[in-house]
Specification:
This protein is α+β, with helices and mostly antiparallel strands. The chain is 53% helix and 26% strand. The radius of gyration is 26 Å and the shape is extended.
Length: 243
């Protein structure tokens, strides 16, 4: 009896730990910051999650930097010299494999490789078929309501900055202003927009800062909402059968 109680206690602790981890993954917010200085051409994105145990940073200025920190491990992607060396190593290994394959398959005629144009045509046909099938199942109308709710939940809570722009055609400037006026992100925050209808040259300048958060729970709920719809399931089934 004591052994049974001990086993049940261990199982209960394991289940409790798993539930706590799942709750943390779903409900701990993913915080993000976006900072852009158009005049200086400096752009950065910061994301952190799980009490900063997971951190992501992207910076673009004179060169691009991409950093990912998970616990005490750091992955640095941007070093162009390292990327070049890795690419050279991969090319050497690929050349060796091709050489070995050529020696082992001398009697076989190599299959002609597809040109870049043929590949592009194949991809465009696939995209066209997928788009046509999506319209056939009314996928845009099915996913848009849930997507609107999701975008509202992950919207930035802080937005500020200045934006000045103008086009050589004043009509184009007016259309852009009308489009921005339909986006609450711009007219319900501290963002100051200054259109220039008198300029003879096209330009854009200013800076932008946004900060907000989201929870993975929102993304999971969005996926569940989509999958529950009959036409979405039909579209997925049709895509699988076509593949």
């Amino acid at each position: 009896m004591v052994i049974v109680l001990s086993v049940c206690k261990i199982i209960g602790i394991v289940v409790l730990v798993v539930l706590v981890l799942i709750a943390a993954l779903l409900f701990l917010p993913v915080s993000y910051e976006v900072n852009a200085d158009i005049d200086q051409k400096r752009y950065s994105v910061r994301v952190h999650w799980l009490l900063r145990l997971v951190r992501f940073r992207f910076f673009y200025g004179e060169k691009a930097e991409l950093l990912l920190n998970i616990l005490f491990f750091r992955l640095d992607f941007p070093d162009q010299e390292k990327r070049r060396k890795r690419k050279e190593k991969k090319e050497k290994k690929a050349a060796k494999r091709k050489k070995k394959k050529k020696h082992s398959e001398d009697d076989q005629e190599p299959e002609p490789e597809k040109s870049t144009f043929q590949k592009a045509v194949g991809i465009s046909r696939t995209v066209a078929r997928t788009g046509g099938r999506a319209l056939e199942y009314d996928i845009p109308d099915a996913i848009w309501p849930g997507l609107q709710i999701f975008l509202f939940r992950i919207r930035p809570r802080q937005v500020r900055g200045t934006l000045s722009f103008g086009f050589s055609d004043p009509a184009t400037t007016g259309k852009v202003v009308g489009g921005l006026a339909m986006i609450p992100l711009f007219y319900r925050t501290d963002m100051r927009i200054s259109p220039d209808f008198e300029t003879e040259q096209t330009y854009i300048s200013g800076n932008f800062y946004a900060k907000g958060h989201m929870m993975l729970f929102h993304a999971v709920m969005l996926l569940i909402r989509w999958i529950r719809q009959k036409n979405v399931r039909g579209f997925i089934g049709a895509a699988r059968s076509a593949a």
